[in-house]
Design brief:
- There is one protein chain.
- This protein is an alpha+beta fold and 232 residues long.
- The protein contains 5 helices and 10 strands; from the N terminus they run E-E-E-E-H-H-H-E-E-E-H-E-H-E-E.
- The strands form 2 sheets. An 8-stranded mixed β-sheet has the order 3-4-5-6-7-8-10-9, sandwiched between helices. Strands 1-2 form a two-stranded antiparallel sheet.
- Helix 1 packs across helix 3.
- The longest helix is centred in the middle third of the chain and has 17 residues.
């Protein structure tokens, strides 16, 4: 012991007054810097004419219209009040890709107009993990776009980015999002009680996940009619 005071944050000890502010980790990062941004953000093909592509400045109008949807506002807890805000929303993703913290793709068809988004939030290279996010505009719903987009992004994450774990969380009241997760093969892992605050108060959050090591083609989601007991 050096005699310096030590502060504990989670499982990490930070030596106060040491040269670099922390002590070395005993675990090597699962992925090193550059695992995501060493290549340009890819254009991904799902199926049946659905493509996932990086956002462009010209998409701002479609994004602002999407965030006029009450459901998107409710579950994503945000809105866009101006064209400038919409342009900033689309512009942020190139920076976040380079920072390897988050990523987002526009869902487009043959006309190349965005009808939804799918993305990665909270990318952790140390753990090779990320959380999924998705939404689809009202006019494009009912065609399975979110499921196909999640499946396409999952294939890229496990096959090319070599992530180990993908998870997603949604309000327990958001049954549509739950259905997408289950159809995409994301197992229900439990419930986070009163974990996220929406405009109408605190919401329980259902947690779903898939691992890179899960057997391919195996549906881990509960079968229709199955009673799921969430961990409290």
């Amino acid at each position: 012991m050096t005699g310096r005071p030590v502060a504990w944050t989670g499982d990490t000890a930070w030596s106060l007054g040491s040269d670099d502010g922390h002590v070395p980790s005993l675990v090597e990062p699962a992925l090193t810097a550059g695992a995501i941004n060493a290549r340009p953000q890819p254009r991904l093909t799902a199926d049946a004419g659905l493509v996932l592509r990086p956002w462009r400045e010209g998409d701002a109008e479609a994004v602002r219209a999407a965030f006029d949807c009450p459901d998107i506002q409710r579950w994503h807890a945000r809105r866009l009040d101006s064209d400038g805000e919409a342009r900033r929303w689309t512009a942020q993703w190139a920076r976040r890709w380079q920072a390897e913290t988050d990523a987002s793709w526009a869902l487009v068809g043959d006309d190349d107009r965005p009808v939804g988004q799918v993305g990665l939030r909270g990318i952790l290279l140390t753990e090779a993990s990320a959380q999924l996010s998705y939404w689809v505009t009202p006019a494009a719903r009912g065609r399975g776009l979110a499921v196909r987009a999640v499946e396409a992004l999952t294939r890229w994450c496990f096959g090319h980015a070599e992530l180990h774990r993908l998870s997603l969380e949604h309000s327990s009241a958001n049954t549509a999002s739950c259905a997408v997760a289950e159809r995409a093969g994301f197992a229900v892992e439990g419930t986070l009680r009163a974990a996220v605050r929406h405009a109408d108060g605190w919401h329980d959050m259902h947690v779903h996940a898939r691992l890179r090591t899960d057997p391919p083609g195996v549906d881990r989601a509960p079968r229709p009619g199955t009673t799921v007991r969430f961990r409290g």
